[in-house]
């Protein structure tokens, strides 16, 4: 395994570094666990799982216990019989397909769009979307198994796909992305029953595991791209305000589902302030967790301070 | 490549003949697929658990609501809660009278097994029909097999049938002889130019092409024109010796 053990007299510094790099790639955040303790090194991850599972539970209480807090699913729902919420991406496709939805759906879509436009669209991806747990699991297993390679599509694929799904909706006169959307298939499957939809969810898992690191959520999903557009003026943002303390351990890059967003803020590439303003950042907070030096924290987009 | 795949899959999926019976008030299938966001709120508000969301493999657009009358038919609630629940208008709120719902059309699809067609008096589909005597009537016809009995044939009328599926649900056969089908499968369509002479005649209050000569039919001169029914006792001209049939056959049990 370790070539260094055969030559204990002179460990070449380069190989020691590469060995530690390798451990970063399989177990990022080990340093943070040592420094901050397991709980603090998983704080945002746990909060996120709590949010994802909590929201799912609100939908499940009805079918499981007859406690109808939220009816429906993420596509459209009614909370406590008064609050309509509808996925604006679905509405966009429906309107493109030539339908004018009722005001309940438009109101629901408006509320959802306003919420995410204000706080940050991709909060949906990391704090609500059930597929996040699937792709996070794939990414975790991929790191653990040391699976390398594959072919990652361009991160702009999703934006092309976003445009194409709207175009396809207009051309076919149906809500095009719903024929395949693993997000709604998983969520609806959990609440109403899967049929063979689990196959689509499984293929997303296998795609991320074997073919493309963070392939689905980070490169392909047009729903994520739609919420990415809503993320352009996100209020909630991650800042690398203690970037002077960064020791280049690379843990944040290893766990980040959108690693390209970190560099400008952390290394002051093409910007001075330490705020991650890239619309692809999902504000998942995993970088905050795994950083042993507490470089990152959650703040607002107006906080450009650096300490 | 992916987009192409998605497009083909979508086109293929929507090209499949729609066999799903949609909830009341559903828009025509193509519009329905553009409007339904597959949220399941109609399913949740259906008090009889009639509706369900299709799962991948059900051969119905995944996630869209449908029901199978043979399993759980639509109870035709007066307040139509499923339509009220729909946030997008895929179920049209113009529908306020459930009697005007057209979810599908019942078709007595198998005349070889239907008990009434065999000459029995099953009548179950007729009895359970919520629009009895309008959507399904029993039509009295002569039973040619026994030649002495009547058959009461359940007959569906498209102008009244809502497609609720009660008839299909209650058909006593192991496989229902009467089935609710989507209109596209159940109905033909007359050509635009097609006119029914008798309808036009009645509408115009008389023949549009003048009085017609009625050519005599040999042996039926005393009958009304067009009446070619054979009366009991009528013996067709033949060389073979004739045994009287029907009520005059002399048959005894």
How would you briefly describe this protein structure?
The complex is a heterodimer of chains A (307) and B (253). Chain A has 307 residues and is mainly alpha-helical.
Q: Can you walk through the features of this model?
A:
- The complex is a heterodimer of chains A (307) and B (253).
- Chain A is mainly alpha-helical.
- Chain A has a domain at 69-229.
- Chain A has 15 helices and five strands.
- A three-stranded antiparallel beta sheet of chain A has the order 1-2-3. A two-stranded antiparallel ribbon of chain A has the order 4-5.
- In chain A, a hairpin with a 3-residue loop joins β2 and β3 (83-86).
- Chain A is globular.
- The model of chain A is unreliable at 1-13 (pLDDT under 50).
- Chain B is an alpha+beta fold and 253 residues long.
- In chain B, a hairpin with a 5-residue loop joins β4 and β5 (149-156).
- Chain B starts with a helix and ends in a 49-residue tail after the last helix.
- Chains A and B meet through β1, β2, α4, α5 and α8 of A and α1, α2, α3 and β1 of B.
Q: Given the C-alpha coordinates, what overall shape of chain A results?
A: globular
Strand content of chain B: 5-15%
Distance between the termini of chain B: 76 Å
Instruction: Output the radius of gyration of chain A.
Output: 21 Å
Largest sheet of chain A: 3 strands, antiparallel
Please report the distance between the alpha carbons of the first and last residues of chain A.
Answer: 42 Å
Please identify the oligomeric state: heterodimer
**Count of DSSP E strands of chain B?**
6
Order of helices and strands of chain A: HHHEEEHHHHHHHHHEHHHE
Total helical elements of chain A: 15
Structural class of chain A: mainly alpha
Mind summarizing the main beta sheet of chain B?
2 strands, antiparallel
**H/E topology pattern of chain B:** HHHEEHEHEEHEHH
Q: In percent, how helical is the residue content of chain A?
A: 40-55%
- In the sheet with the most strands of chain A, the strands line up as 1-2-3
User: How much strand content do the residues of chain A show?
Assistant: 5-15%
GO cellular component, one term (chain A): plasma membrane
Transmembrane segments (chain A): 50-70, 111-135, 156-177, 189-210
GO molecular function (chain A): 4 iron, 4 sulfur cluster binding; metal ion binding
Domain 4Fe-4S ferredoxin-type (chain A): 236-267, 273-301
């Amino acid at each position: 395994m370790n070539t260094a053990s055969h030559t204990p007299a002179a460990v070449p510094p380069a190989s020691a570094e590469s060995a530690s790099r390798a451990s970063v790639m399989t177990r990022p955040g080990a340093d943070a666990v040592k420094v901050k303790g397991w709980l603090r090194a998983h704080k945002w991850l746990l909060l996120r799982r709590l949010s994802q599972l909590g929201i799912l539970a609100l939908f499940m209480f009805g079918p499981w216990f007859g406690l109808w807090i939220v009816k429906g699913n993420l596509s459209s729902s009614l909370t406590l019989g008064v609050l309509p919420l509808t996925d604006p991406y679905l509405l966009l496709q429906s309107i493109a397909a030539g339908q004018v939805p009722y005001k309940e759906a438009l109101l629901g879509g408006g509320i959802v769009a306003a919420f995410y436009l204000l706080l940050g669209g991709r909060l949906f991806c990391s704090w609500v979307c059930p597929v996040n747990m699937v792709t996070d699991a794939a990414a975790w297993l991929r790191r653990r198994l040391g699976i390398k390679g594959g072919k990652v599509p361009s991160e702009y694929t999703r934006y092309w796909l976003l445009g194409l799904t709207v175009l396809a909706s207009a051309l076919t006169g149906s809500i095009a992305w719903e024929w395949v959307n693993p997000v709604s298939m998983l969520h609806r499957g959990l609440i109403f029953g899967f049929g063979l939809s689990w196959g689509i969810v499984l293929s997303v898992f296998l795609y991320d595991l074997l073919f493309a690191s963070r392939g689905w959520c980070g490169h392909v999903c047009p729903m994520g791209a739609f919420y990415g557009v809503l993320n352009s003026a996100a209020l909630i943002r991650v800042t690398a305000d203690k970037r002077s303390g960064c020791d280049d351990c690379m843990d944040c890059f290893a766990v980040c589902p959108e690693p390209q967003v970190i560099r400008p803020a952390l290394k002051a590439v093409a910007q001075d302030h330490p705020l991650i303003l890239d619309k692809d950042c999902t504000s998942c907070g995993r970088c905050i967790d795994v950083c042993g030096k507490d470089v990152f924290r959650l703040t607002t987009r107006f906080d450009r301070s650096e300490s | 490549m992916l987009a192409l795949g998605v497009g083909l899959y979508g086109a293929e999926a929507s090209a499949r003949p729609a066999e799903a019976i949609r909830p009341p008030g559903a828009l025509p299938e193509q519009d329905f697929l553009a409007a339904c966001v597959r949220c399941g709120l109609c399913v949740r508000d259906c008090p009889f658990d009639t509706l369900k969301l299709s799962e991948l493999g059900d051969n119905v657009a995944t996630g869209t609501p449908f029901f199978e009358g043979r399993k759980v038919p639509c109870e035709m609630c007066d307040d139509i809660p499923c339509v009220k629940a729909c946030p997008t208008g895929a179920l049209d709120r113009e529908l306020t009278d459930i009697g005007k719902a057209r979810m599908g059309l019942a078709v007595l699809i198998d005349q070889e097994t239907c008990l009434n067609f065999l000459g029995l008096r099953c009548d179950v589909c007729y009895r359970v029909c919520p629009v009895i005597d309008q959507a399904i009537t029993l039509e009295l016809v002569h039973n040619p097999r026994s030649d002495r009995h009547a058959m009461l044939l359940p007959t569906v009328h498209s102008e009244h049938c809502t497609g609720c599926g009660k008839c299909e649900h209650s058909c006593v056969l192991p496989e229902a002889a009467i089935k609710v089908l989507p209109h596209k499968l159940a109905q033909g369509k007359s050509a635009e130019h097609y006119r029914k002479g008798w309808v036009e005649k009645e509408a115009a209050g008389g023949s549009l092409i003048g009085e017609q000569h009625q050519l005599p039919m040999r042996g039926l001169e005393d009958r009304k024109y067009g009446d070619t029914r054979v009366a009991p006792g009528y013996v067709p001209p033949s060389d073979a010796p004739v045994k009287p049939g029907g009520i005059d056959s002399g048959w005894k049990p």
